[in-house]
Amino acid sequence: MLTMIYACDENGAIGKDGDLPWRQSSDLKHFKLKTLNKTIVMGRKTWDSLGRPLPNRRNVVMTRQEPLQGVECMSYEEVMALSEEEEVVIIGGGEIYALFLEETKEIHRTIVHTMVEDADTYAPDIEDSGFYLIAERRAPAGEKDEHEMTFQHLIR
Ligand SMILES: NC(=O)c1ccc[n+]([C@@H]2O[C@H](COP(=O)([O-])OP(=O)(O)OC[C@H]3O[C@@H](n4cnc5c(N)ncnc54)[C@H](OP(=O)(O)O)[C@@H]3O)[C@@H](O)[C@H]2O)c1
Domain boundaries in the chain? Predict the structure, then answer.
């Protein structure tokens, strides 16, 4: 099964200048909980922004260039085939979310309650794609968070 996880602002922005546009420690904890011990798939630009594999997860990177050194790379077809056998979590960024949206069954979306100026990367538009909310929890900004956030779980 394919699932997806992302954090976006109130306009759907997810990135700016190759990085996350906020510091949200609580969301990183949530991300860890949802991805631990699973296969995570990311685009090469997100891989570059992380700078290292995320521990205790099978890290998979997508690139159209030569396979990268030191990390497993897969094609679209290989990711889809793996998702027939196990849960595969798409972790971004914008290009890779758009690529897999049609095949995605479940989304963990965090709305970060801010509006980022000059954002350059956006989450896919999931309006009219059949997803509906099955759980939602608003959380205040903790000590290491810049903004309040709402954790949502959507399926179709
Ligand atoms: N808020 C969040 O939840 C979240 C999560 C993740 C990332 N982000 C942010 O999103 C931004 C990065 O997103 P992005 O859209 O610029 O880049 P991206 O999706 O991370 O990576 C794009 C790259 O993926 C590869 N790619 C794309 N389609 C492919 C295909 N069909 N087959 C094989 N490889 C393919 C290409 O790599 P090559 O150029 O090597 O060919 C492409 O340049 C950053 O700002 C990051 O911080 C935010």
Answer: 2-155
Tens digit of each residue's pLDDT (9 = 90 or more) over 50-70: 999 999 999 999 999 999 999
What is the CATH number assigned to the segment(s) 2-155? 3.40.430.10
Taking the centre of ligand 1 as the mean of its atom positions, its distance from the CA of residue 125, in whole angstroms, is 16
Q: Are 40 and 79 in contact (CB under 8 A)?
A: no
pLDDT confidence tier of residue 5, bands split at 50, 70 and 90: very high
C-alpha dist (Å) from residue 132 to 43, 140, 154: 26, 24, 5
Could you tell which of 35, 46, 114, 150 is best to mutate to test the pocket of ligand 1, judged by most ligand atoms within 8 Å of the CB? 46
- Contact (CB, 8 A) for 38 and 57: yes
Q: What is the pTM of this model?
A: 0.98
CB contact at 8 A, 112 and 9: yes
Q: 9 and 116 in contact (C-beta within 8 Å)?
A: yes
